[in-house]
Amino acid sequence: MLKFGDAIEALKAGKKVTRKGWNGKGMFLWLKPAVEIKAEWCKDEALKKLVVENGGTILGLGTICMYTHDGTGRKAILTGWLASQSDMLMEDWIILED
């Protein structure tokens, strides 16, 4: 098992990580890298407006994403996951193999 810093390094290396202590089955994190967003890709009108105003592309910064479930149990993706203090202090992080 790993410390939080080791889990972050694994994310940077393209690995998926999880915590043994998480209640939800199958939950894990991955790092979505930065990407140039093009206006024609946008389904979100507010984002599309910003991209168009920026000349047709804008940088989407990298972010940590979580595969999780919503309140009804449906599978869901959380973009921009933030670690709790418990997450950062625990040493039960695991690298998932593909």
UniProtKB/TrEMBL annotation:
<dbReference type="InterPro" id="IPR021361">
    <property type="entry name" value="Tad2-like_dom"/>
</dbReference>
<feature type="domain" description="Thoeris anti-defense 2-like">
    <location>
        <begin position="3"/>
        <end position="95"/>
    </location>
</feature>
<dbReference type="Pfam" id="PF11195">
    <property type="entry name" value="Tad2-like"/>
</dbReference>
<protein>
    <submittedName>
        <fullName>Uncharacterized protein DUF2829</fullName>
    </submittedName>
</protein>
